[in-house]
Amino acid sequence: MKRAIVFGATGGIGQDICRDLAASGWSLYLHYNSKEQFAMNLAQDLFDKYPNQDFMPIQLDFNSSDEQLTEFVQNLLPVNAAVFAQGVTNYGFLGDEDLANIAKLIRINLAVPIKLTKLLEPQLMKQSFSRIVYLGSVYGGDGSALESVYSATKGGLTRFAQAYAREVASNNLTVNVIAPGAVKTNMNAIFSKNTIEKVQEEIPLGRWAKGKDISYWVKTLLDKRNSYLTGQTIYVTGGWLL
């Protein structure tokens, strides 16, 4: 049985990733932080559709200590894949930013995913094939004013994946980044209708992405046949900011 852990499974994109992977035969750990009931409902919904697969909600706060992260990974059943779909941002000038919030963005978007990757490595290496996918951002390649720390963390994921992929390639472990452009999720609900419309006008395909536009590429990267693509960042932006 092939099994993946999806970090941020209750997020706007994470939900669609879980649904697409479940439809492709994956059993899943559905990671959540505070949305326990949502994760339970999602797991039940997936189990009703795919009763021969396992769907297990699992809680982890990315503020956890290194010891707690280690214990979390040690308690997992073996996984073939890890998808890091969690992420936070803050919109504003760096000069106005709270130092604690800067640390939070770096921890959740970059530091903890790297730590969890290190901890997951031994069991991923034991599989006949294994995959890691990080959700980056178009701003990791073309930094956004007023989201400078967020841009730095997503750019960091791109460089980390490029380097780490070279370390583990001989073990049939591929490591890649999917970098969305503008996606209709709660993270972007802070923007006004006018701002959303202006961004849409700048996108050559003429619309914001849906979660399924991103989850399709995650599913493709996790496919066993996709064994030769590694260390790459794939920009899924509708032609925006390229």
UniProtKB/TrEMBL annotation:
InterPro entries: NAD(P)-bd_dom_sf, Sc_DH/Rdtase_CS, SDR, SDR_fam. Pfam families: adh_short_C2. It is an enzyme of class 1 (oxidoreductase). It comes from the Bacteria. Its EC number is 1.1.1.100. PANTHER family: 3-OXOACYL-(ACYL-CARRIER-PROTEIN) REDUCTASE, 3-OXOACYL-[ACYL-CARRIER-PROTEIN] REDUCTASE FABG. Belongs to the short-chain dehydrogenases/reductases (SDR) family. This is Oxidoreductase, short chain dehydrogenase/reductase family protein. The lineage of its organism: Bacteria, Bacillati, Bacillota, Bacilli, Lactobacillales.
